[in-house]
Amino acid sequence: MNSASDRSDEQAVPSDNESEVRALYRQVLDCWNRRSPAEFAALFEPDAYLVGFDGSPMEGPLQIETELRQIFTDHPTAAYIGKVRGVRFLTPDVALLRAVSGMVPPGQQDLNPAVNAMQTLVAVRRKVGWRVTLYQNTPAQFHGRPELADQLTNELRALLNQ
Questions:
Q1: Mean pLDDT in the chain?
Q2: pLDDT tens sequence across 5-21
Q3: CA-CA distance, 67 to 10, in Å (whole number)?
Q4: Which CATH code of 2.40.400.10, 3.90.1150.10, 3.10.450.50, 3.40.50.880 fits the domain covering 4-160?
Q5: Which H, E and C letters describe the chain, residue by residue?
Q6: pLDDT value at position 31?
Q7: Which of 76, 115, 135, 157 is most buried, by CB atoms within 10 Å?
Q8: Residue with the larger pLDDT of the pair 22 and 141
């Protein structure tokens, strides 16, 4: 059973801090979906670290913005959908968010299951609000367990169809 500080979307109403951390995650996805590298990077701490889907490391908002600008220029990127699986507070000012995500390719209406991912976001509270200090996007390939891949795709597809 999850504790109150690590609740899933289906459980009780989150605290204000938890809601703010969840909102920060949604902003990350929304900025990606709007293809806005500057807004995306502005959500990150000066010494933040990001690991992209392909394992590409990025450090700090400047590198994040530069890399995303290049990605958005070179590729028609898919849109994210995401589902928060839980938020755990490591301290009152540091939160760990766990999520799953899928992507809908441009011009399509359904997910591409090959790019489903497990996402981890570590947020820190500053005077200006919650900011991302770590964001990692790991392919959800479930090697040798196709039933888990199908289960995740179905879960995300249900979210997409809401």
A1: 91
A2: 344 444 556 689 999 99
A3: 35
A4: 3.10.450.50
A5: CCCHHHCCCCCCCCCHHHHHHHHHHHHHHHHHHCCCHHHHHHCEEEEEEEECCCCCEEEHHHHHHHHHHHHHHHCCCCEEEEEEEEEEEEECCEEEEEEEEEEECCCCCCCCHHHCEEEEEEEEEECCEEEEEEEEEEECCCCCCHHHHHHHHHHHHHHHCC
A6: 97
A7: 135
A8: 22
Q: Look at 4-13, 34-43, 60-69, 95-104 and tell me which has the smallest mean pLDDT.
A: 4-13
Q: What six digits make up the tokens of 90?
A: 């490591």
* Alpha carbons 102 and 143: distance in angstroms, whole number: 17
What is the reported pTM? 0.89
